[in-house]
Amino acid sequence: MGDVGLLYVGAALMINGLMLLGRIPPRSAAVLNLFVGALQCLTPTVLIVQAGGNPDAILAASGLYLFGFTYLYVGIANLVGLSPEGIGWFSLFVAGAAMVYAGIAFWHDHDPVFGVIWLSWALLWTLFFLVLGLGMERLTRFTGWTVLLLSQPTCSVPAFLGLTGAYRSDGGTALLAAAILAALVAASVVLTSRRPLPSSNPTEIRSSHATR
């Protein structure tokens, strides 16, 4: 069930990356954020209820709320015109929690691939904090490209692998995943240096012209 939610998290991240790049108006992006946010709150709740008190199952489900709350927050803010600082500072909390979940994946779950994925999410939500919480607009295009390029390999791809029973996690696969994600971040740097796409103030998530 968690893989189903992760699949649509990839879609939400893709949309939000395009929003940061000025290609999708925030109000248009808000609807999918609300859908995915609601799904990512419902899914862990069901998983926790079904866990029967199993602490490992509850721990595995608990991290999903980080994304559910983020997307609900973004969706509501975009629709009603809230300023983005609250989302930015909440993103700092998410980034810190993601580092903890990365450690859990590496040393508790023995799942190094998801440890790498959690670290990439920590990077994304740190960028959200810098752009939305601290107003570092110069990082907006880099953040948009990084979110866009990492959305599928960190969410939709592992979700499809999990749903089809093809997901594997070992040290070699984790190193390959880390190399791919690092290359995509480097590609974001290159794309950022190119001519900007048309957009207005990207930190104004509520603007109909212009976000882990």
Can you describe what's shown?
The protein has 212 residues and is mainly alpha-helical. It has 8 helices and no strands. It has helices at 2-20, 26-50, 55-62, 64-80, 85-107, 112-133, 140-163, 171-192. It is globular. The protein starts with a helix and ends in a 20-residue tail after the last helix. The model is unreliable at 199-212 (pLDDT under 50).
What's the quick description here?
This protein has 212 residues and is an all-alpha fold.
Rounded to the nearest angstrom, the distance between the terminal CA atoms is 21 Å
How many β-strands, per DSSP?
A: 0
How would you sum up the major sheet? Answer: none
Run of helices and strands: HHHHHHHH
Radius of gyration: 17 Å
The number of helical runs is: 8
Pick out the low-confidence regions. Answer: 199-212
Strand-pairing-aware structural class: mainly alpha
| Portion in helices | over 70%
Shape: globular
